[in-house]
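User: We ran a pulldown and think these components assemble together. Before we commit to crystallization trials, I'd like a predicted model of the whole complex to look at. Sequences follow.
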Amino acid sequence: MQQRGLVPAAFQRAAWDASLAGRSGLIHAPTGTGKTLAAWLGPLCDWQARHTDGWSPPPRGRSRRVVGPPIEVLWITPLRALANDTELALRAAADGLGLPWTIERRTGDVSAAIKKRQRDRLPTALITTPESLSLLLSYPEARDRFRSLRTVIVDEWHELLGTKRGTQTELGLARLRHFNPKLRTWGLSATLGNLDQALLHLVGVGPGGRRRRGTIIAGPTEKDIELDILLPESMEQFPWAGHIGLKLLPQVVERLRSANSTLVFTNTRAQAEIWFNKLLHAAPDLLGQVALHHGSLDRDIRAQVEAMLDAGRLRAVVCTSSLDLGVDFPAVDQVMQVGSPKGVARLIQRAGRSGHQPGRPSRVVCVASHAFELMEFSAARSALAERRLEDRTPFDAPLDVLVQHAVTVAAGGGFDPQALYREVRTAASYRTLTPEQWRWVMDFIERGGEALTAYPQFARVARDRSRYRPSSKLIERNHRLGIGTIASEPAMLVRYASGKTLGTIEEYFIARLRPGDRFVFAGRLLQLIKVKDMVAVVRRATGKRGVVPRWNGGRFPLSTQLADGVVARFAEAARGELADEAMAALVPLLELQRHMSGLPEPGRVLAERVTMRDGHHLFAFFFQGRLVHEGLAALLAHRLTRDTPRSVGINVNDYGIELHAPDPLDLTPDDWHRLLDPDGLIDDLLACVDATVLARRQFREIAHIAGLITPRFPGARVRASGRQLQATSEMFFEVFTEFDRDNMLLHQARREVLEKQLEFARLRAAVERLRATPIDTTEPGGLTPLAFPLFADRLRAETVSTEKWEDRLRRQIEEIERGLA
Amino acid sequence: MPIPGTIPLELADERVLLCPQRALWWGARRTLVIADPHLGKDDTFRRSGVPVPASVARADLARLSSLIGTLAARRLVVLGDFYHARPAAEDHGERALRVWRAAHPSLDVLIIRGNHDVHAGPPAAELGMQTVDEGELDPPFVFRHHPGADERGLVLAGHLHPGVTVLLGRREGRRVPCFHIEPACVVLPAFGRFTGTSRAEVSPAGSVYAVSDDAVTPLPRAVLA
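Assistant: Here's a predicted model for the assembly, 1046 residues in total across the polymer chains.
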């Protein structure tokens, strides 16, 4: 570095020293501060110190290829797209030091020739993804190949941490540590709320659950992020509720014109589609300079947009979290957040996507879609300043990933079950894996299920002398194909008659359309021609309007940090303190809320009782985020209807819940106390939310990871044997439910629904806390500003139902027939 | 004895029953018609290292037995894809089939050859089941595997595993197997439970009947779209 005239920062020195001393650790710092070098120079210096006399390559064979020292460093990146840039950066540093290292990538898009060469000999530093690491571990030569490996560096660890790819990485690391107990593990991460946990899951645990040592090294703190909150010209016209909120469109267009290139982040794919269309409508001259980017668009289309963005040829891209990560686009000089920020860490991540000059703060233009989002942005401003960041919670012992890993290890030289059990438990996600769970995993891959269930002639692995290996070459090959192909189903392809694919859309949306109907997708107005074999064939349509599809999933709740921040803003406002211009703009609304009912206060719950023509409504503002509210509302409705037979409808948003019923909902403190009983919480919850529907959806991913679905590649020739193995996760869900009820993958699906979709931990904590919280019930005589969004959202509410689908269908048919009569 | 959840229909002036067990009952001929049982599919999966419980096949055959018993059927017509793949004698499904056959020794079984049967071959001769090419006429019906029209009569067919997505609430759809009835051709749902469905393309003159565990339900168009 000195050679390039740069002085290393203190945190970089700290990281090099720790690495040279053989320690592991986690470096957290914002992007663009030199994290990469902090992690990379340690291993380089280490090698240099061991080779003071230089290094001479082994005698060359027939091959004329440059041979470097054997593998020293494995660099794991979550995103294939990042691998190329990483390779260049690592090579520049190694060359700068004059080291003879070879540096190569091994990802899905590397040529077969290079992969084959890497099978004989790995480069000195290998850049790869979690899936490709698993694949490497699935060859019997893995142990030999990694013999000289001394350091693993996991880039963007925060991105992997809360995902099953993160769990997969943990298991891979446990394997590598088994090969070399002295292996150093370093992680690079953005700043998180739970850095200790992030470190634990990175370095793993020692035998017997002992915590392994690791160092947390903090880089320079984030550059200041300024939130530039757009304010409506008149608050009277600004909506109290709504999820599109286009009132600020003219200001947004103005901002787009004033910057070189802007990323416009939205929270959902549907929002992105709508904003894209409205932007072009408002500023038709921007046609061709504005693009759309989200996860359901075809990969080619997305790549095209990214290339144009990189070349600086786009004024703006309307996107979703699909552009949260990835290579930097130097041309981008402005970031916008449309709609609720949802979480502080997310906002920081997005702010970091604009290239900014050193020393200048990065700036996010905040576009509220309704009044209270102004308050969320204002709360985010404080949370940012105080660095109140959210956690990323790792998965807890997911068995699907473990099933896959066990077969990987079986293929990679075989295993002894006891030894592998011990090894797996050194991955922090599996440190509490019970012998019963492990036995089930072994049963599942050896016999298909527990000994008593009938899976004759099944064996994915079989004992070969003392070790378990795949029971056939075919199984081994299918397993390798399956690693890393987590396709979602049943998504429907949207394709022009000419053959060009636009992307995917959920089947239930297409099911509503008839040929000839128009809808908006990929930023275009399309007309459905026909549906055939999971392909919706479309043509361009003219006209103004079309339905916008909605996709399931991907709806983030307001984080605890932000929800608490919003309550704090209410409390400040009650004391007459206005934090910023956004809060000042809200004064008339807050006054109205106070006048009609009251303002929420920390440590108390505000509830409002309103009687309207359609019945009795009870609103309660818990400020726990929409997922917790979904569980909470369903639980309250379930317990209310169980006590006294009646029907109670529910509705939720990020701030609170609404219960409505034909008869009065007068809840005394005793009633609340009884309703918020943590006893029997799980059972009641599973009984009341339509857990089966959610679990069925969750099971899709599990079925793929656990290898139930034979991978198919689009365009690939299907062998006759492959055709005989076609099945959907839905079919497995049904036969397991009917014939193997104790299948642990089903339990896992239910558990994931609880943990990830209903945020059970947060829900349970909320129930326990709320039980002891005083509830102030007011009778405002009408809908208050806080209640109105809930009420207005009612048409979009998801149904929470305990009925069987047959009964729901029957009821629906009756309604339709009544409508026709 | 009536079966709960069935729907009586007139097809080509013949009275038939659509049964939730995924079968069609032609009372006048005491004939039970099913399509696509895909016997042995679970065996094929297990042999390839994918765990599918063998109880699937046993339950399919038990359901068939129970229908035959309740309706006092004299003849069973299988509209193709009787087998999923060529069975081995030691296969669980094959042994279950022998046990099943022994329980219904006098039942006439007619199998219309489907695309899977071409590879799998006919059942063992000692099972006493007759296999014929598609197009078998039994007025007013023509038994086929692949759906199509036939001027000699109304076609009863399988092959497609028809299913429809029914809308439940605003954001949820669910794919269920169905009987798909068009003026020239009736497509039966796949009898095998582990078979999956494909989306039925219903013409303006067509209609569908959804199949659930306990009932057949006629579906108005509005539920479909």
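The radius of gyration of chain B is 17 Å. That may be worth checking against your pulldown data before setting up trials.

User: Thanks, that helps.
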